Amino acid sequence: MAAKPWYNWYVVGVLTATYASSHVDRQIMAILLEPIKLELGATDTQMGFLVGLTFALFYATLGMPIAMLADRTNRRNIITAAVTIWSFMTVLCGYVANFLQLTLARIGVGIGEAGSTPPSHSMIADLFPPERRGTAMGVYALGVNFGLLIAYLAGGWLSENYGWRTTFVVVGLPGLLIALVLYLTVKEPRRGGAEAKASPAPPQPEPPPQVQTQSAPAAQTDAVAGEDKAPSFGTVAKHMMAVRSIRHLCIGSAIAGFIGYGFVLWMPSFLVRSHGLSPTEVGLTLALMSGVIGAFGTFTAGKLADVLARRDVRWRSWIVALGKGGYVPFLAAVFIVDELWLALLLYVIPAFFGGFYLAPTAALVQSLVSLRMRALASSILLFVLNIIGMGLGPQLVGIMSDWFAPEYGQESLRMALLVLSFLNLWCAYHYFTAGRTLQADLAAQQPAS
């Protein structure tokens, strides 16, 4: 019996809560960078390594074998285990004694978070047809903004009043409750169920009785014939490399992640160093910007992509190119002006468009691969995005800040972030180029999905 529409949205809601939990536990480091750096005596380069490459290597690399497992087994159980692991390791961060122990605990958080997003993308794609998938992915992507909202608000206040160690414990515990709710209330969806409902098979001549009785049970193994066995990693990777629009989507999202993680993890330090804000003030400011305004932008991108695609499917990619390229002057100006109020006013535009790439990219990749490729394809996309984005973005900002320090002193981080702003133009180019071949690539995939 088919699931009711409200239940599909309930599943998206629970998965969004898990995604938010992962981003709270991941991005809490942004608000805690300064107090951790001072207590442990680390440099900007070391802190960039801690929040960037150290986390990303394990998060992105382990995501692929876990996704291969998700294409073959129960995705809900995998996500449940993942939430439990990263929540426990976040709590453990509050009890470390030195920089090495904190590094190992953050690696544990990365290992746990590797098992969440690819199976979630796959489940959502099985619940919603392509014409509504962008909107559903847009709701799921709100987990990034909700996570930032909680991380900034709770992190700023808790850090200032109770210290960074207590902050880790408090933000880590709710994930254990979310894991329990997920396991008890969400069922594993039928693979390809959305495509089966959206595109019913054309009527066929009635076969002879003996053929009909033999073939009907076999058709129940999956919603689409030929999708009952997950392909190998090599097959999926080869397919993604062969599809032109996927190649540009991967490159574009990697650049977007490079910029996004660089800003998310260093903006609190910039506001403290260059504008003298307290941790609580930083938390309130960035919660409003990234959590509230950013959430509107993230959802708008997914919804707008679905609406504009009714006229021309290429807008699913071009909407990202327009957003990422258009906000560059506003973002650069944030680091040029000296007045805090003017900088924050200018930052409203980048905050809205910062996550514009998330929902359209995830929805497109799910539509450009076959059913049993979905979790692994998502993990390969996230591998590229996070190794380059999360792994190198914050690291490069830290290196540039130390490099600019002899000449610019306290304002070295301002200069590093200013340079990073202009990479958005490169990102916009790849999303525009992906759109040029998108129609043909979707048409080529249609028979297989």
Characterize the structure shown.
The protein has one domain: MFS general substrate transporter like domains (Growth Hormone, Chain: A, Up-down Bundle), CATH 1.20.1250.20. Residues 199-227 have low confidence and may be disordered. Helix content is 80%, strand content 0%. With 449 residues, it is mostly helical.
Outline:
This protein is an all-alpha fold. The protein contains 21 helices and no strands.
Write the SSE topology:
Elements: H1 5-40, H2 44-51, H3 53-70, H4 75-93, H5 99-113, H6 117-127, H7 130-162, H8 164-172, H9 174-185, H10 193-198, H11 209-215, H12 233-242, H13 244-275, H14 279-309, H15 315-326, H16 328-334, H17 340-353, H18 358-367, H19 374-408, H20 412-421, H21 424-445
Give keywords.
449 residues, Growth Hormone, Chain: A, 80% helix
CATH class: Mainly Alpha
CATH topology: Growth Hormone, Chain: A
Tell me roughly what share of residues is in helical segments. over 70%
Shape: globular
> What's the architecture, going by CATH?
Up-down Bundle
Q: Helix- and strand-based class? A: mainly alpha
What is the name of the CATH superfamily?
MFS general substrate transporter like domains
* Beta-strand percentage range: under 5%
Q: Provide the residue-averaged pLDDT.
A: 85
Compute the number of strand runs.
Answer: 0
Write the H/E string, N to C: HHHHHHHHHHHHHHHHHHHHH
Question: What gap, in angstroms, lies between the N and C termini?
Answer: 22 Å
How would you sum up the major sheet?
none
Provide the domain count: 1
The unreliable regions are: 199-227
Radius of gyration: 22 Å
Count of alpha/pi helices: 21
